[in-house]
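hey so i finally got around to running the thing on that chain from the lab meeting. sorry it took forever, my laptop kept dying and i had to restart like 3 times. anyway pasting the input first so we r on the same page abt which one it is
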Amino acid sequence: MRMNVSAEPGGVDLPPLSARSVVLSLLLGTHPPELAAKDLVRGLELFDVGGSTVRAALSRMVAAGDLRRTDGVYRLSDRLRERQRRQDDSLHPDTRAWDGDWETAVITSTGRGPAERAELRTRLSALRLAELREGVWLRPANLGRPWPSDLGDVLQRFTARPAAPARDLAASLWPLDAWAATARALRAQVDRTERPADRMTVLAAVVRHLLADPVLPTALLPADWPGPVLRSTYDRCQRELTETALGPGRR
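ok and heres what got predicted. didnt touch it at all, straight out
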């Protein structure tokens, strides 16, 4: 079964959600990320997913290594727990006062193949850095997140203060106006949706969009930056959906 939300004027064309995606959305929004099979079957009824479809999706997810099953309880795999950590960080980023410094990472290793280079780019983007030129990544030093220790084998890190005006540099590294426009459209689409299945589809798109928020200092952002409002909207609506599907206190 798949769910889709059609784009409306000023809206966003959203991909359909599969039963697997709905299961993951519920588990990723639950702490700790584990639910009994009966709770998942009952909870997904809210999203128009039948019991046989849920059970088939759960079996496939266990076989694929997405979930672990013990005594009728399904838990996220270690890989997907890391995805939950990134999702939580996108909703509640660890920010600190910015003093004007920029984190800079220069790739120093050589001889990496295309797959390794692509993986490294993905990891640096997930750390909310942007590429100034090939092998040189940076961002304002306003985040308190830890760095993976193994990246020290492939790059050198330091802080610097670029000569270019900080706002101009930020605008050249991230498509801020485009991100803000999509964020506003998504928030409006959340407000327009009423059916739980449709709202879950939009909220999944909100999470993906928040993962791409550079979380810059306020001084470097355009006026009326919609990031905080979009986070608040997601948090409220996801909590309501989760509690409706699984009962109060499931968060």
